[in-house]
Design brief:
CATH topology: MetI-like fold
Distance between the termini: 30 Å
Structural class: mainly alpha
Strand content: under 5%
Largest sheet: none
Low-confidence stretches: none
Helix content: over 70%
CATH class: Mainly Alpha
Oligomer: single chain
CATH architecture: Orthogonal Bundle
Length: about 300
């Protein structure tokens, strides 16, 4: 037990002294971290920040629904949509949906990719051949096209979107984990664990996976950006999160006509800006983590 605590402290100290210093030097990564924290905070505090119910149409003093009203006319921060709902309230509630989809989908794809990649790389043989051929078959199809087909077959909902995106994006993680395990499985500490009689499960998940976590974390970060973008695309096409539930993607669907594009920018620019900032910030964080956790940069 003491030995495990000592190893954990060594890893923490290494990240605090070396990795954190390298991460702090990457100004874009720090900016991206701040932006993502702000978006997460806005999602968590959505009931507090929202001025009005995001699913109820606003009415003026005469009792008329305030459809397509600008911020100045409606008295709200971002105006109203075509049904008279508060755009700002929908935007902050949509952050909950889009960020949740990104996190859950990446969680699914990372778990599936790590498990299958570990089995493929460690055991090899028939297991490796079957898993890698499955990866090849999935990679033969454009991922977005495959996700749209599956999402269209299933009943479109936020939960199906999470599952579909997660189950269609594990191949990159599986290849990465397989390659890392092929690299480290012949190292001395793995051979020592084998000679001491450790089980395959213990060797993989207690000795190998913790030592290849750096590239897995970076890959998961990049996948989260792709998952948010994929969810936005699916929702824009009508195959993702369904109305009246707000997501950044289906809010962009308001811009499906020329009148909205040219004369009502408050209905689509904020949602597009949130997607842009979230994806760009996560990519910056991924680049920063890659530099911070790269063993070749350690002095």
């Amino acid at each position: 037990m003491e030995r495990k605590k000592r190893k954990w402290k060594q890893r923490q100290n290494l990240f605090q002294t070396d990795g954190w210093k390298r991460f702090r030097k990457n100004k874009l990564a720090l900016v991206g971290t701040v932006i993502i924290l702000v978006l997460i905070l806005a999602a968590v505090l959505a009931p507090v920040l929202a001025q009005n119910d995001p699913y109820v149409s606003l009415k003026d003093s005469a009792g008329l629904v305030m459809t397509d009203q600008s911020p100045a006319k409606s008295g709200t921060i971002l105006g109203t949509d075509s049904l008279g709902r508060d755009e700002f309230s929908r935007l902050v509630y949509a952050a909950r949906v889009s960020m949740s989809v990104g996190l859950v989908a990446v969680g699914i794809s990372t778990v599936v990719g790590v498990v299958l990649g570990a089995v493929s790389g460690y055991f090899g043989g028939v297991a490796d051949m079957i898993i890698m051929r499955c990866v090849d078959v999935i990679n033969c199809f454009p991922v977005m096209f495959l996700i749209i087909i599956i999402a269209a077959i299933l009943n479109p909902s936020i939960y199906n979107v999470m599952i579909v995106i997660g189950l269609c994006n594990w191949t990159g993680t599986a290849r990465l984990v397989r390659g890392e395990i092929l690299r480290v499985r012949e190292m001395e500490y793995v051979q020592a664990a084998v000679s001491l009689g450790a089980t395959d499960f213990r060797i993989i998940f207690s000795h190998i996976i913790p030592n290849v976590m750096a590239p897995i974390i970076v890959e998961a970060t990049m996948q989260m950006a792709r998952a948010i973008l994929t969810e936005a695309s699916l929702s824009y096409l009508g195959c993702g999160v369904q109305l009246p539930t707000a997501s950044w993607g289906n809010m962009l669907n308001e811009a499906n006509n020329l009148a909205t594009l040219t004369s009502r920018p408050w209905q689509w620019v904020p949602a597009g800006a949130c997607i842009f900032l979230a994806v760009l910030s996560i990519n910056f964080i991924g680049d920063g983590l890659r530099d911070a956790l790269d063993a070749k940069q350690k002095k």
